[in-house]
Amino acid sequence: MRILVTNDDGINAPGLKVLEAIAAEVAGPDGEVWVVAPAFEQSGVGHCISYSRPMMVAELGPRRFAAEGSPADCVLAGIGDILPEPPDLVLSGVNRGNNAAENALYSGTIGGAMEAALQGLPAIALSQFIGPENYALDNLFEAAAAHGADTVRTLIERAPWQETADYRLFYNVNFPPVPASAVRGMRAGAQGWREDTFFGTEPTTSPSGRRFIWIKGGPQHKPTAPGTDAALNLDGYISVTPMRADLTAHDALSELERALA
């Protein structure tokens, strides 16, 4: 199996090393793992692509490349230029922090997996929820490292992929904020909604007197509705959410048609 790996935390991120190990285990001794990751951190860029400017790509070692672009750019570069053949699977992550609930809308990790799906390839985004129970561990990514390969293999072998769909499925995986031994299993769940949690702004003034604004997130440990992604994670489960790039609110179409008639 040939696997393309990317992330949004950057080529030197510890979570990428975890994902490379997961990919190597899944690919097997006769497989290939190719890494094309951003040269610098690209957290929060979503599905951004750099179509208005070129990007430099540097080869750092065998099957290892850094690109001055977003995760989606890295996937495009890997598929269109770097890899000799299209990959059998694209993995994006392991992100430092959860990409559950509203975070999924901003995530560059998910953006990389989404681009792979738009290119007709099976793709999985993987993220590690962080909390009081795992923050002080020697390996912050312990749950992802221990359960990542089995999770990916399970999805490859058992999950629906809908290869012929116009907007094919990809999967968003979040590992719970607990030690590996405390993970309770894997559950399917919808993208949740955290009440009163949203991105905001915090203005500041530099020593030179210039005004800047920081973008800041809200509390991450508020549970979402029972059975949805963040709620499952806070209960100790690996959450798996099927996603697709179709943004149509299909449940509102009939009502809209009646309103416009």
UniProtKB/TrEMBL annotation:
Domain of life: Bacteria
InterPro entries: SurE, SurE-like_Pase/nucleotidase, SurE-like_sf
Cellular localisation: Cytoplasm
Enzyme class: hydrolase
Primary localization class, coarse: cytoplasm
Chain sites annotated for binding a divalent metal cation: D8, D9, S43, N95
Catalytic activity of the protein: a ribonucleoside 5'-phosphate + H2O = a ribonucleoside + phosphate
Role according to the record: Nucleotidase that shows phosphatase activity on nucleoside 5'-monophosphates.
Similarity comment: family membership: Belongs to the SurE nucleotidase family.
UniProt name for this protein: 5'-nucleotidase SurE
Source organism (scientific name): Maritimibacter alkaliphilus HTCC2654
Lineage of origin: Bacteria, Pseudomonadati, Pseudomonadota, Alphaproteobacteria, Rhodobacterales
Gene: surE
